[in-house]
Design brief:
With about 425 residues, this protein is an alpha/beta fold. It has 14 helices and 13 strands. Strand 6, helix 8 and strand 7 form a beta-alpha-beta unit.
């Protein structure tokens, strides 16, 4: 029976089935035409029907053999409806991935979960075109699928350039080597029309067995741990990976507590705004100040990078900007009045504050309330944020027309580079 199945799915077997179907149809039509010509031809229609039945039976065997081949190649995936697959790559989508991982966690099964991002993928689309970007996504999906299936696992596309792998047979001892292999695998050249790219990826991974009580919280909690490991890896540059461990767990717990405490700190005014002097190099003369916001938590100051990242992740960057702007303008105005000076102050703004209906009106109101002349406020925006938002809003123009100065921060790191 095995040999028959192999023959039926072979090219020769497929042509035989198609030929049998065609011959049976011709015989049946001829039988219908000759049926009234002679009595001996009365059974010809039945012969034609029998031929069709045999051909259909062969086709059914062919379809069943193909189905078994798909099951052998892809396991349960061959039985899934199309709604479980990503249309571009042909691998499972995030919904099936979530169902599969959730079921494994509920059943108490171990394994490894890996989240992977293509580094700087937006630039691939921008510089080489979306068609080339699609080729990179498809090829990455194909490579990850082969690697996952070789480990008895599953690869899925979770979003634009993010993929997830569930590997039930991989443990912590083999996870590091697997991450290294996947980085090398994805970095292989991808070609399209003479153009070539070597994709770089960042990886966050976790051994489910090492999560302890966290695994009982379900899919979302486990994936958040993976995403945290991925974010840590991305901060270390392209081609990096991080596996969730005790050190990362302490950072994760601490940042989770920070996310809860930051809104209260903003409400209670616990954040401090410092004015950093700005001097001329030639004579060290004081020419103004730059406002810096700091948060003293548990006896030490949180780094500016961590504070801004936390505000962005929790959706509080707009509130943090407002807090700093109001305190900076108030402090500078008080300084100038007490000392009868007219020093300017610079503040850094996120792109959200470039919208006239949000940040601009608030800034102008702060200047009016604290009686600081607009020309003594310099608004610093990053080069990328300024150019990306200027086409959509007129916030910078409104601030400039009101008398504020505009400065581009990190010049040469974005468009000008």
């Amino acid at each position: 029976m095995q040999k028959i199945s192999e023959f039926l799915v072979s090219p020769m077997g497929s042509w035989l089935i198609l030929g049998a179907l065609g011959l049976a149809a011709v015989e049946f039509l001829l039988a219908l035409g000759l049926g009234s010509a002679a009595e001996e031809s009365a059974n010809l229609p039945m012969f034609g029907l029998a031929s069709i039945a045999v051909a259909v039976g062969l086709y059914a065997l062919h379809w069943q053999a193909m189905r078994h081949r798909r099951v052998a190649a892809h396991g349960d995936l061959a039985e899934l409806p199309l709604s479980c697959f990503d249309t571009m790559t042909g691998i499972p989508n995030k919904f099936y991935f979530q169902d599969k991982v959730s079921a494994a966690l509920s059943a108490g099964r171990n394994g490894a979960i890996v989240i992977l991002d293509l580094a700087d993928f937006a630039n691939v689309n921008d510089r080489r075109g979306r068609a080339f970007g699609d080729v990179v996504i498809k090829e990455t999906g194909r490579r990850l699928r082969q690697r996952a299936e070789a480990e008895g696992g599953l690869a899925a596309r979770l979003s634009g350039d993010r993929f997830g792998l569930y590997l039930p047979n991989v443990r912590h001892s083999g996870l590091e080597l697997l991450c290294q292999d996947m980085i090398a695998l994805c970095a292989g050249p991808v070609l399209m029309g003479g153009d070539e790219i070597n994709p770089q990826v960042s990886i966050g991974a976790v051994d489910v067995a090492g999560l302890g009580e966290l695994r009982a919280l379900g899919y979302d909690s486990v994936i958040s741990v993976c995403n945290f490991a991925l974010a840590t890896a991305k901060s270390e540059g392209r081609g990096a990976y991080r596996i969730y461990n005790e050190n990362l767990e302490r950072e994760f717990v601490d940042l989770d507590a920070m996310a809860v405490e930051l809104p209260e700190a903003l409400r209670n005014g616990d954040l401090e705004v410092f004015l950093q002097p700005r001097c001329q190099l030639k004579d060290r003369a004081l020419i103004g100040f730059e406002a810096l916001v700091r948060w003293k938590r548990a006896g030490r100051y949180v780094s500016a990078e961590d504070l801004i990242a936390m505000a962005e992740d929790t959706g509080l960057i707009f509130e943090l900007d407002r807090y700093m702007i109001d305190r900076a303008i108030q402090t500078m105005a008080d300084w100038n009045r007490r000392r009868k000076t007219s020093f300017p102050v610079s503040v850094n703004l996120s792109a959200l504050h470039l919208r006239p209906d949000k940040g601009v009106e608030f800034i102008l109101d702060c200047l009016h309330r604290h009686r600081l002349p607009a020309e003594l406020l310099t608004v610093e925006v990053t080069e990328t944020a300024q150019l990306a938002v200027l086409n959509q809003v007129k916030g910078l123009i409104g601030l400039r027309e009101a008398g504020c100065r505009i400065a581009i921060d990190d010049f040469g790191t974005g468009y000008a580079s």
